[in-house]
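step: validate -> pass
step: tokenize input -> pass
step: predict -> running
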Amino acid sequence: PAISVISRIDESTAAASLAQVIEARTGERPVLVSAATGEGLAALRAEIARHLPEDYRARSITAEVCESGDAVLLVMPQDIQAPKGRLILPQVQTLRELLDRKCLVSCCTTDCLPAMLASMAKAPDLVITDSQAFRTVYAQLPADSRLTSFSVLFAAYKGEAPFFAESARRLRALPADAKILIAEACTHKPLREDIGRVKLPRLLKKVLGDAITVTVTAGRDFPEDLTPFDIVIHCGACMFNRAYVMSRVAACRSAHVPMTNYGMAIAALLGILDDVAIPGVD
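step: predict -> pass
step: emit ->
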């Protein structure tokens, strides 16, 4: 992969127009940097991280929440946001890893969960659900089953689970006029009932009050100055590699801004975070 860089921007007035030409021809936005002032160097490091191969320092998605031979039930709503005829990437990756690890895997949609549980000879060792179905699945969870979500698993796989969990626990203590940044990795056209743009902001306002301000960014758009925000809530980042997500974690830490992800935020807002299995968190 190649990264376009325009340097010495402190000495040139043509950098912005040149960047537009390069982006129009290549489809990639150049990074503008100045070695003299340091401007753009953080963005350049982020771009290098974004272009690293997906298997760079590969980690396991499920190793810390289940073992070989465990019965694992995947609850996967197939709503308007699910691509027709396919599963979303986190579901595919999780399913494949569980099969490779010789787990006993079952799958169902949320509405079929009662029938699935009734058909099983014993309760599953682990239930992995879409975070949007946390409330419904938690209400039906067998006493001996552990619960987590695809988003929570990817928080540990792509990011820093302990930091995310600690930050999620701070959600309910935010000021009434809190400013919240929701960061999506995808740049898809928003759909009806979109999780990042509709469902999560609605839940935040229901729990925290209407005085909060929610800002949504997508793709590579991520503010350089995070200090105006009280917390950052990131998606599962299935479209980013871990190094790139960790560059955002580092940016939040540097700005002393808490950062969590969709799954942990939803669990915290529903009051069930302590009952959710989080890799790397006791």
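step: describe -> The radius of gyration is 20 Å.
step: cleanup -> pass
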